[in-house]
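TODO from last week: model Formate dehydrogenase.
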Amino acid sequence: MGLSLTDKEAIILEHEADPQRILNILIAIQYASEEGYIDEATAKLVADRLKLSEARVYELLSFYAILKTEPQAKYVLKICNSTPCLYTGGAMLAEVLETILEVPVDQATPDGLFMYHSIPCIGACDQGPVIKIKDTVFADLTEEKVYRLIEDLRSGCYQEL
């Protein structure tokens, strides 16, 4: 079930329907939605409520990598690519995920369960390398721990995600 119109409007109002806060609004709506992306109707709603053109909303949607305009996988694994994480083995994460999941970065697995991509910083530099799924950070990862994490996710061990 998707985010209701009332819920989307509440998020817009939480940000005082301020056009200067459009990025925060789009991110908040995307994060709150089960689908994990901004659909056409939502983009139109945001444009309307903030008194902006739809073109301006789509400009932001296409510019910021964090914003998605297509459905995402059930588990979106965010790999930290900050310098500290790279020094502690972060580069290995994408390679291992590509091997395990048999898909390249930014592509969902055929079953729709997994997708992974790199982001600039997760805020857990002292625990790298890390993967973040929603609000949960999986830290000090090794190749073995990544394999175990994927197995656990497939078997439903993390119902809260």
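Done. The longest strand covers residues 75-80.
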